Amino acid sequence: MTTVQSPPAPPTAIRPRVVARTGLYAVLAANVAVVTVFFAQAGFASNSLIVIGRLLGLYGALVMAFQLLLVARLPWLDRRIGMDRLTSWHRWTGFALLWTLLGHLVFIAFGYAEGTDTGPVGEVVDLAETTEGILRALVAFALILVIGATSARYARRRLAYETWHFIHLYTYVAVVLAFTHQVAVGTTFTASSAATTYWYTVWGVALGSVALGRLVLPLWRNLRHRFRVSAVVPESDNVVSIHITGRDLDRLPAQAGQFFLWRFLTKDRWWQANPFSLSAAPDGTGLRLTAKTVGAGTAALRHLKVGTRVFAEGPYGAFTTLHRRKTESLLIAGGVGVTPIRALLEDLEGHAVVIYRVSAERDAVLYGELAELARAKGAELHLLTGPPVPDKLAPRELARLVPDIADRDVFLCGPPPMMNAVLRTLGDMGVPKQQIHFERFSLAG
């Protein structure tokens, strides 16, 4: 087994995730301040309800633009923060957007209805019929309501990813409608040339980021690398490895621990994109993913033909050596979650302990490769088998296997219940949060 390894960055006091997160907060805070200044310069209406409503509308427009930045899949942000965390932030800012726009609508309606006999609902209807841009804003708000409803945990669990994704494409329709509403009736937007330039810049950067990360980069990388299936290797009855080749793969900025969205361009599967981690560290000549059968889509992978064209979006994820804090590591894998762990072991330097948790030995996919790598790198490898109870990853057991666990980086990947239990255990054992690295498969947007 030969690999081309780039030496990982040594542990540093500078934390990339903190830098990226702080940068995002600073950008958002600075824009909130700028919006507030432009709003004050534009002058206030005599009605305080209208003043509050207009300010909430401006903040809503800013939050909407910020949301686009979170789902843009920009490599710099993704590698430092991670798609799962960006998705979580996107979700919460989405609810913030919903309440902000609702407040905008309510305050504007009651503000314009003050001193009239029409009432807030009648005033909204009258504005929609007589004022340019209001009807578009109401349609945008209705779309955001539908999108917000499908993002609720109850609905999300019951919708197929493709259905959920299709509904969320209407977000872009809502963005366009909201922007044209702002252009048509936004007094702050037209109050000065500086304000007009600012808002065009905000929306241009937000939409441009989405176009770059979601369209331009994937198209450019696939045209450049021309991915194809080079081999299909069954690992067990329900697990298969797909080897990918292409052009100039040494220039593909992929790292061990990351994942791609893979589309295999066959007649019946070209429209499906599935996230699979790299199960081997990129060596500049090929890529490998390893998938477990969980449905018709993954079951069809073992029938792929050599030469099948592949459209790959990525690499994505912050589950890499970039975030190391210590020179020694502990890698914990559960089930098929071993795939990024196996790739990370190949890439990590320094002493490593690997714990692989499965129900039975026959479920230990890639165990032979793990054992070979462990011998070559001087790592400790522990295979833990058996039912979930008793917990073989409880504090006492982990302390026995890894007495110096608090002095190691911990990389964790496995089924959600196992990951949640291990995260609680690591907290109980006093392992600092900045030394715990994990990522859940969540796609922003």
Automatic annotation (TrEMBL):
Record keywords, A-Z: 2Fe-2S, FAD, Flavoprotein, Iron, Iron-sulfur, Membrane, Metal-binding, Oxidoreductase, Transmembrane, Transmembrane helix
Cofactor(s) it depends on: FAD
Record field: transmembrane: 24-44, 50-71, 92-113, 133-155, 167-185, 197-217
InterPro entries: FAD-bd_FR_type (IPR017927), Fe3_Rdtase_TM_dom (IPR013130), FNR_nucleotide-bd (IPR039261), MRET (IPR050415), OxRdtase_FAD/NAD-bd (IPR001433), Riboflavin_synthase-like_b-brl (IPR017938)
PROSITE patterns: FAD_FR
Topology with respect to the bilayer: Multi-pass membrane protein
Location relative to the cell: Membrane
Name under which the protein is recorded: Ferric reductase-like transmembrane domain-containing protein
